[in-house]
Amino acid sequence: MKFQVNRDVFSEAVSFVVKLLPQRNPQPILAGVLIEATDAGLSLSAFDYEASARTTIEATIDEPGTILVHGRLLSEIASRLPNAPIQIAVDDDGIVLSCGSARFTLASMPVQEYPAIPEVSGESGVVPAEDFAQAISQVAFAASRDDVTPVLTGVQLEVTGTQLSLVATDRYRVALRDIPFDSGIAADENTTTALVPARTLTEVGKTFSHSGDITVSFSGSGDREIIAFTAGNKTVTSLLIKGNFPPVRRLFPEATEHHAVVNTGELIEAVRRVALVLDRSAPLRFTFGADGVSMDASGTEQARATESVDATLTGEEVVIGLNPQYLLEALAAVKSEFTRVTFTSSENANKLSPILITPQTSGGVESFKYLLQPNLLLR
Questions:
Q1: In whole numbers, what is the pLDDT of the chain averaged over residues?
Q2: Which member of 192, 312, 357, 365 has the lowest number of beta carbons within 10 Å of its beta carbon?
Q3: Burial environment of residue 246 by CB neighbours within 10 A (0 to 12, 13 to 18, 19 or more)
Q4: b/e per residue 44-78 (b: at least 16 CB within 10 A)
Q5: Is 2-113 CATH 3.40.640.10?
Q6: What does the pLDDT look like over 351-366, one tens digit per residue?
């Protein structure tokens, strides 16, 4: 094998394919990047049995061939090379990379032991990349980070008709965002679901946020169901999480008039300041009243903080305890100058009712909803 390629193009391609690989992999072979040089161009791939990334770039191919080389090392080298074309060739010493006066010799990994990159050929549709990336950022943070319950570490994608919904929960909160979905066929009211690891989906959002449109494809069956995201010359696939995602949609209440409207930025800054004195994981006391919303926090070092923010309340005064970090993440996801905090009611008198956080807009159905369970306040 022998080829020549633009340094910046090659560096960006290697960085893309290794981004989804875990920092530590129990199988050394999976730390490799597969590079295939053909008449069609240069293909770079990485796969760890759960997620894969693949891209094709232009290159001058002198001798076609396939090599497997350690991915993160190659990425670090490529990002630091001088501004000159890169030439890669295979000789008796291994894989030789030359760029300007720089020369590296890398060990070749056994190509025949590398697993086949998944191919996706199932049903597909198209979503606007910017909307999809924003939806991921508004939802993925609510997924659980505890691997004890794998289904809660994913984001549930639900396609119904011309709509794609993203849902995530960690039992204490639920985030939901709806965006348009174009399947290219007549609207189908059947629902297609895919439970995607939140970490993988977050990387997809970051990578494809400015890609125009993203093609979403569903493929496979049984234990090898996968989903693929393709934009331009890049494709990411992910093995779906098996299991039943909890039916959290039914937790969202019907519209209620008991709510407060507050400036999003002002509330974020106030919560950040007051929460500084709180013990870790302690709730922050909120009082929503006729004069606005006030916050009160006490810490073990005899520190105390209070602050008030203007708010418009419809209904009775409410005193409630909330996890400040969970609230801040929701407010950051609102993407609106003003936030509506709706106080729900529960049929169980012994259970605290969750609050519903949505953007305050001029009307219409909200595409983003966030449900947060309050904490008990000590008297």
A1: 91
A2: 365
A3: middle
A4: bbbbbebbbbbbbbebebeeebebbbbbbebbebb
A5: no
A6: 678 999 999 986 656 7
| pLDDT tens by residue, 74-91 | 999 999 999 999 999 998
What's the rounded Cα separation, in Å, for the pair 62 and 164?
45
- Beta sheet of 154-160, edge-to-edge order: 191-197, 154-160, 163-169, 173-180, 368-372, 355-359, 338-343, 259-263, 311-314
Domain ranges of the chain: 2-113, 124-249, 252-372
3.30.565.10, 3.10.150.10, 2.60.40.2890, 2.40.10.10: CATH of 252-372: 3.10.150.10
Based on the number of CB atoms within 10 Å of its own CB, is 168 exposed (0-12), middle (13-18) or buried (19 or more)? Answer: buried
Give the Cβ contact number of residue 277 at 10 Å.
18
Structure tokens at 262: 């507050």
Which pTM was predicted? 0.90
Whether residue 192 is predicted with pLDDT greater than 90 in this model: the reply is no
Tokens of 86: 């890169």
Tallying the residues shown for the chain, one arrives at: 379
Q: Rounded to whole angstroms, how far apart are CA atoms 349 and 211?
A: 49
| Two tokens, residue 123 | 């049903």
CATH top-level class of 124-249: alpha beta
